Amino acid sequence: MSLAVDQRAVESLLAFWADAGVEALYADAPIDRLAEGAAMLRAKSQPPPPPPVSRPGMAVVRSPDVASAVASAKAAAAACQDLESLAAAIAAFEGCPLKSQGAKQAVFSRGVSNAPLMIIGEGPGADEDAQGQPFVGRAGKLLDRMLQAAGLEDRVFITNTVFWRPPGNRTPTPQEQAVCAPFVERAIALVKPKMLLLAGGASAKAMLKRDEGILSMRGRWFEWVAEDQSTELPAMPTLHPAFLLRTPAQKKKAWQDLLTLTERLDRPDRPH
Ligand code: URA
């Protein structure tokens, strides 16, 4: 094989990985995969409590512990009149079990405080845990590129359904999401977005209280309703950027979702 062919092959391989979101072939600091694996095993050996009974339109039945943590989250969130105090209240909150399962810090939000679009992901990963901001790792970089291509990069507020990294990057449980939900809801009340983009099945299920797979929900419009029913917003589930990194062939579906959402975001409000 000639040197020129080798170089083309290498360039093509690098372009393939770049397209899949892999932009660096090394990390700044060593990663202890054994410790990560051990954390995952520990998390798996402690099965989460059974999920609350939840169906659209039905009351949610919770254990007393979860109910009292939700009540204190509601009280703490209600006292916050701006995003800074909400961030501080989240950081000080002790009611979410994830806080004591190895997370380095609370990860609340990034973006524009009065953005027309709020993006709600599942929960922080390792990069977010290290940097204290949501969607700053590989999946976040892909999300940013998509937002930029859609002209949305300066029009979003980004947060998650839970604010502490679940050990081993497992999916947050419905209980953990329920405890953090009053803070998410308060963020929606303070930012006042026109619509929500729900990234991933765990976000869509929790925010919409629906038990459907993300592949059937994505790209469709739903109504998100505040717990006290005071607010309703259009909400669209979409594929999680981490899933797109693993399955690049699905990127066009997420792109289509983003275009549909952008078109509605920019549509002039009809007079009532
Ligand atoms: N995945 C998420 O759902 N949220 C983040 O903040 C990062 C990765």
TrEMBL record:
Alphabetical list of SUPFAM superfamilies matching this protein: Uracil-DNA glycosylase-like (SSF52141)
EC number(s) on file: 3.2.2.27
Molecular function (Gene Ontology), one example: 4 iron, 4 sulfur cluster binding
Annotated keywords: 4Fe-4S, DNA damage, DNA repair, Hydrolase, Iron, Iron-sulfur, Metal-binding
Catalysis performed (reactions): Hydrolyzes single-stranded DNA or mismatched double-stranded DNA and polynucleotides, releasing free uracil
TM regions (residue ranges): none
One biological process term in Gene Ontology: DNA repair
Top-level taxon in the UniProt lineage: Bacteria
Domain Uracil-DNA glycosylase-like: 108-259
Record InterPro entries: UDG_Type-4/5, Ura-DNA_glyco_family4, Uracil-DNA_glycosylase-like, Uracil-DNA_glycosylase-like_sf
One Pfam family linked to the record: UDG
SMART domains linked to this entry: UDG, UreE_C
NCBIfam families: UDG_fam4
Family of the protein in this entry: Belongs to the uracil-DNA glycosylase (UDG) superfamily. Type 4 (UDGa) family.
Protein name: Type-4 uracil-DNA glycosylase
